Recover the amino acids of this structure.
């Protein structure tokens, strides 16, 4: 089976313990402390590998633990830092915190490598604890523990256009006709089990990536069959081609099919219902009789904004017109690829990072390493990113601290280069 989902356990390495020791040299009877520091634990890093296109490896091995840092040694020797554990994933993999389902990282676009869990910091040796009153400290700092987390990996296909439709309506045939993809084609009454990607080349440097999304069945949004596995691949697409058997060769009603699949999309993710669609009425080469199903489709759906193209995936009739129309539509849509915003940050030593809330005249100023770190993580230009940052300020007690210092609705808050008005 095509592996596009996995749940795994990851754990970063513990920091090495600091060492307790004292100089023991000839003619130096009371040498001072010389215990070295521990090494840093290994990080858990995810990295995109362009050669991968499934998450198969993670379905067989589910536990990934980085090495611990080495303990410090005598004579001020620093323990070795542990090697980082780098996990390779295909481009388009979204890493989520398993329990909440919140996004930790989207491994696509510019994000080709990201540290997900930081290794623990090494402990300080006893050499750091000598004072005028305590010249022989017998204490060293233990290494900080690593982090552990259950995460889910979801591969969401990166394509401009998704090809939708029930099994056996001709999606694989269409894809093979308009791209260089080589999907398996037969009169299957079950569905393709993995997405096929192809590039539509229209000449003059124009074209787009199209994905044959595996055929949906009723109840897909509820996880019936492999519904969730299939639907997640549509979430990045900027446009959908909805393919139907206009000839009704298997007794299906194309209008009912379109309504049913659109209902599944909206139920799974309401945003998918807003993605522009064009209807490809396939199998016009086998339409017989006096009735005109193409006109019936146009009369039903074009008033709702869905343009209908009569095509034959077998003979190629109408495909050129359909592909150029889709290409023109894509030019008018947002060119930025769909990237899922970070919603969750693993809690590595974040509570140790300080912040300050001060006043500069009538302006409340919030600064410090904690704020700087979170601003670096967060895209405040997106609605989701801004909500994530608001929740972070609330969870860390920063909003409570502002209220303790007397902030009122409408007051101004400054965080480095950003300025906000405060409202409850």
């Amino acid at each position: 089976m095509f592996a596009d989902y996995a749940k795994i356990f990851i754990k970063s390495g513990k920091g090495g313990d600091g060492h307790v020791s004292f100089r023991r040299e000839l003619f130096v009877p009371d040498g001072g402390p010389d215990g070295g520091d521990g090494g840093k634990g290994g990080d858990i890093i995810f990295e995109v590998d362009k050669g991968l296109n499934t998450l198969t490896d993670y379905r067989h091995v589910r536990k990934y633990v980085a090495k611990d840092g080495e303990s410090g040694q005598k004579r001020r020797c620093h323990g070795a830092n542990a090697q980082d554990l780098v996990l390779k994933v295909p481009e388009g993999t979204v890493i989520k915190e398993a329990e909440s389902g919140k996004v930790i990282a989207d491994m696509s676009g510019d994000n080709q490598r990201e540290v997900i869990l930081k290794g623990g910091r090494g402990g300080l040796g006893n050499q750091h604890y000598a004072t005028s009153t305590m010249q022989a400290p017998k204490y060293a700092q233990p290494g900080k523990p690593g982090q552990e987390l259950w995460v889910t990996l979801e591969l969401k296909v990166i394509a401009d256009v998704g090809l939708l439709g029930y099994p056996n309506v001709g999606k694989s045939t269409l894809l093979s006709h308009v791209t260089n993809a080589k999907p398996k084609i037969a009169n299957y009454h079950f569905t393709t089990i993995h997405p096929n990607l192809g590039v539509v080349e229209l000449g003059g440097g124009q074209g787009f990536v199209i994905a044959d999304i595996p055929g949906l069945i009723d109840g897909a949004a509820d996880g019936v069959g492999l519904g969730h596995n299939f639907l997640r691949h549509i979430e990045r697409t900027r446009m959908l081609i909805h393919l139907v058997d206009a000839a009704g060769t298997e007794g299906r009603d194309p209008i009912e099919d379109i309504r049913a699949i659109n209902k599944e999309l909206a139920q799974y993710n309401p945003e998918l219902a807003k993605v522009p669609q064009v209807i490809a009425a396939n199998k016009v080469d086998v339409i017989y009789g006096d009735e005109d199903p193409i006109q019936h489709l146009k009369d039903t759906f074009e008033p709702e904004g869905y343009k209908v193209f009569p095509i034959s995936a077998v003979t190629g009739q109408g495909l050129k017109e359909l592909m150029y129309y889709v290409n023109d539509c894509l030019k008018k849509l947002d060119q930025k690829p769909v990237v899922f915003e970070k919603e969750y940050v693993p809690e590595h030593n974040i509570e140790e990072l300080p912040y300050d809330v001060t006043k500069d005249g009538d302006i409340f100023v919030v600064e410090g390493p904690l704020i700087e770190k979170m601003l670096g993580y967060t895209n405040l230009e997106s609605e989701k990113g801004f909500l994530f940052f608001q929740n972070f300020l609330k969870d860390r007690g920063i909003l409570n601290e502002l209220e303790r210092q007397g902030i009122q609705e409408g007051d101004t808050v400054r965080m480095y280069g950003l300025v906000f008005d405060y409202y409850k």
